[in-house]
Each structure stands twice: as C-alpha cells, then as structure tokens.
Amino acid sequence: MKKAISTMLAASLFSFGLSSVSAASNDLGKEVLQSKDGWASYGNGTTGGSQADEHHIYTVTNREELIRALGGDNKTNGQNHKPKIIYVKGTIELNVDEHNNLVGPEYYANGTGYDFNDYLEAYHPETWGYEEEVEGNLEDARAEAQQKQKEQIVINVGSNTSIIGIGNDAKIIGGSLILSRVENIIIRNIEFEAPRDFFPQWDPTDGTYGEWNSEYDNVSITNGTENVWIDHNTFTDGEHTDASFGKYFGRTYQQHDGLLDVTNGSNYVTISYNKFEDHDKVMLIGSSDSRTTDKEKLKVTIHHNYFKNLTQRLPRVRYGEVHVYNNYYEFTNNSDYKFDYALGVGVESKIYAENNFFNFDYDVDPASIIHYWKGTSIYEEGTFINGTSKTNRVDLVKAHNQGNEVQLNENVGWKPSLYTKVHPTQAVPALVKAKAGVGKVD
Fold first, then answer.
1. Which of 14, 243, 275, 279 could form a disulfide with 437 if both were Cys (CB 3.0 to 4.6 A apart)?
2. What pTM does this model have?
C-alpha cells in the first residue's frame, strides 16, 4: 500500500516540478482523527484529504505552489472541496511578491497615499483627541494598504483538505489560513509564525487611552466551518515580538491579533498537542457577546497543548461547550509576555476544564487564572499549580470566588463524552513537553 501511495505521489508532484515525499510523510497525510478524539470526531468525524486521488496530492515549498495546490485561485480556493493532501516542505513566506521575494509595508502602501509619519501627525491625541474614531484621507489610505496586504497573505482553504508539514522544519510565516464555510480539514505538524499587520489602525476610543488594533489570525475557523483537527503544530510570534514594535501615543504598536480563533457559528473542532508560545491574544472561541446564533455551536476540545509564556485567551469562550483537559501552562518571569489570565468565562460559555497543570516561576494569585467575561459557569477539577503534591491541587472556581466579587458556579449543563483518555494531572508536564508541537507526531 505504501509503495502504491508513493508512486501516486511522485506522479502528482512531477506536474509541480517537485520531488516526492518520504513514506513517513505519506502515512501522516493519510491519517484521520480517531474515534472519540474530541468534538472533531462528532458525526462522520474528520478525515481531511485522506481520500485524495493521485492527482490531488502535492508537496509545496512557496506561496504560489500552496495556492495552486489549494485550487489555483486564492479568491475561490475556499470553494474547492475536492479531497487533497498538501505537504509543506521547508519554509513558506507569505509576504512575498510575484517572484517570491520578501516584501514589507512599502510594497503594499505604494500608490495608496499612505504615509506613517503623516498618519501619526494627523491622529495624534493632542490633535484628534479620544472622543471620536479616526477618519479622513489618511485613514482611507491606511485601510487601502491593509486591504492589499490582506489579499496577499490571507489564504483560503477548502473542504476535505489535509495540510501536513514534512519532518520537523515545515513553516508558514507571515500569513493567515482562513477556514470559512467549509468542513473536514486537518492541519498538522507545521510551525506558524504569527502574521504581522503592517497597517494597524489607531482607535482613540478603545479603552481609556486608545489602542492600535490589527487584523489576521494565524488560523481562523469561522462562518459555520465544521469538523476541523488542528494537531502537533507550533504557534509563535517568532522574532517579531510585541515588544519589538515599540509604542506610539503611549500604546504598543500592535501588529498581531490571535493565533487560533473559532468564531461565527463554527463547530466540532479538536485542538490537540500543539505548542503556543510568546503571544498575547491566543485563542478566542466565539466572536461577540451579541451573536446569539452561536448558541448550540462552538463545540471545541482542547487537550494536551503546551501553553508557554502567553498573556491571555487560553482560551476565552462565549457560548460554546468547550472541553479543556490535560494542557500544560508554563510562565516564566523573564518573558516579554506577562500573564493576565488563562480561562475566560464569557457570555453563556460552558467550559469543562479538568486535569490541567499550571507552572509559574513567580508568585501568581490562583484567583487570576479564571477571568470573568460576563459568563457565570465553568466546571473545573484536577488542577495542579507549581507541583504534584496534594497541597498543589487547587480548586480554581473556589479561588476565583474568594478573590473576586463576581461569583461563578459549576453548573455548565453538560459532561464531555468525546475523549480517548484523561491522564492524571501529575503526568501532564512531562507528557505534553515531550509530545506537543512540530516534529513530535508519533
């Protein structure tokens, strides 16, 4: 069977002018999510592109090849539902021109009339104030430049697709994969470096002192997308940390948004054995408090992930039934990213958290691990903080209620049934550090 698959791969890849991949990679591309492995196993399960024929198995090494493998036209690739396996080899940069040369903000701003220094002068709080959102020719020019970048770095993914990294060095840098109105997608074994929005918008009305707001998540699961498995990937800001962007108007010139968001009625997602490191806003499940159509949707399982030196949204949830178990959270004092909270309890959210391990090398009030975002219920058990003895076991809901005015309860109204095994919390640090992230697929 492996020999037959290798032959088919070679035939397909020849048309791309590329070499075939190893037998081990072939096996990974054909793998499907096993039964009961989280919400993505619901219904018919998640098989990705495992049924791809010989003409729809590819290896890609740059943006152009990735677009071609997904269907050929990025504007319509999200509508290409043919089963396909796409192997990512080496590093794919998405901020590139037609010759695959790296580009920066000047490339997208060219011809728009956007000038950063003029933008700063026009909308400086001493001139513009904090009462109204910015508008005018320079804001229009910024939006136009941002749109040009968006057309280049946002990649649409269609249904029945597996995107698989080869070996331990497959990377996608500076772009966003959008899964919108699609189903049955697998993304595994890829290192993602968060996209940079070269043209964040200044919003003087955001908070007391205004904020710079950016677009683009690394992976966005949105608009009713169903049955998605995100496994053994690494997500990070890489060399472009928030601290490297500096400050304007006294606020961080924020060029990052989320790493992995599930929004707008999407459903049946399993997020397993990934590593998330060095980032602020990590994982948002549910896009807004007012989107009541998200009720009965946003069913997500998050297990055996390694969350290291992050600030918030680990995850933040609205409406969804979200199973969060056997994850390892690690925070060090020397990181640029300062911990704010882990579990965000949003409107009508129903988080079921069990056997998660938190490790801080500095003092943290356990009451801060859960954050109230207008939700009232979260079930939690089996949490350990900074050790494996009985004294390190902490009731997070009780800690929150003792340290905060708003009182939470554990009446979430459901109990997970789609899981393979919940490991003892004491085993979580070693297990997750050994297996989570790129290059660690069994």
1. 275
2. 0.94
